[in-house]
Amino acid sequence: MHVDDRETSLAETMATFDRLVEAGKVRHVGASNYDGWWLARANTIAEERHLTKCSCVQPRLSSLLPHRYSDFDRRRPATGELVSYCDDHDLTMLPYSPLLPGRYGRDDRPVSERYVTMETRPKMEAVRTVANRTGVSGNQVVLARMARRTPTTIPIVGCNTVDQLEANITALDIELTDDDFQRLDSIETLGGLHRRYRSEVRIGRTRDRRSALPQRSSRNAGIPSQESTPLSRSSRLTPRRRDRSPQGEHRDPPRSLTACRDQGNRLLQRR
């Protein structure tokens, strides 16, 4: 399915491809230029009706990410939603236009305005740094990083000369270190890696904020704090309201749940 056809129902589309697979004319079913939620819906329909599901997806994907208002018509760029879905369900990705017509390795080809964001310059500097360390071009670094994604990612590349073909093939032999992966992925990327990175940072900040909070102390002298005293079920459910003693006098509500429990025990002893 090369483009998203909204005029044809997904159920009919998936049933047609399933018949092609059963007839031996097609081995696997894939989708291109699909949104993540639309691809998930197609596979859900196929699973419910015992049809062949999509096992691969062909998105527009590169190291640089376009800004949110970029217009690619029906050639939809990959999104975090799509990449995360492929990562979680082990779908092979076959990105097209991964090198943005050679813009990672040639200074005479400026980055397209559709890819100019706040992350463009640091991302290009990261690619250039890794390229200088390994002694290869920026295009080869981008291909090497993309080919080492998990699950399997097979970039679709084009070439005009034999030298370009050989350079693209050589990218598969480039050894990237953990520092290289961190440098290339920490600025901006899509999918589970960036999601886990952000969650770890968020959890770490939350823990730091909690540790910086002052410890609560009881307002009454001699009354242990709530954190150090286990509360019974009755004390947790005691309403905070003005109570009336058996003699009819009003008592102010206690200042803590522990004091509330002690007051209730005293009233029971009087009875």
Radius of gyration: 30 Å
Number of strands: 5
Alpha-beta classification: mainly alpha
Order of the strands making up the biggest sheet: 1-2-3
End-to-end gap: 80 Å
Q: Helical content, roughly?
A: 40-55%
**What share of residues are in beta strands?**
5-15%
Corresponding CATH architecture of the domain at 59-208? Alpha-Beta Barrel
Number of helices: 10
The CATH topology of the domain at 59-208 corresponds to TIM Barrel
Largest beta-sheet characterization: 3 strands, parallel
Biased composition (Low complexity): 228-237
InterPro entries: AKR_Detox_Biosynth (IPR050523), NAD(P)_OxRdtase_dom_sf (IPR036812), NADP_OxRdtase_dom (IPR023210)
Protein name: Aldo/keto reductase
Keywords: Oxidoreductase
Describe it.
- This protein is mainly alpha-helical.
- Helix 4 (120-134) crosses helix 5 (138-147).
- The chain is built from ten helices and five strands.
- Helices cover 43% and strands 6% of the residues.
- It starts with 9 loop residues before the first helix and ends with a helix.
- The strands form two sheets. The chain has a three-stranded parallel beta sheet with strand order 1-2-3. Strands 4-5 form a two-stranded antiparallel sheet.
- Residues 214-227 have a biased composition (Polar residues).
- Keywords: Oxidoreductase.
- Residues 1-188 form the NADP-dependent oxidoreductase domain.
- It holds the Pfam family Aldo_ket_red.
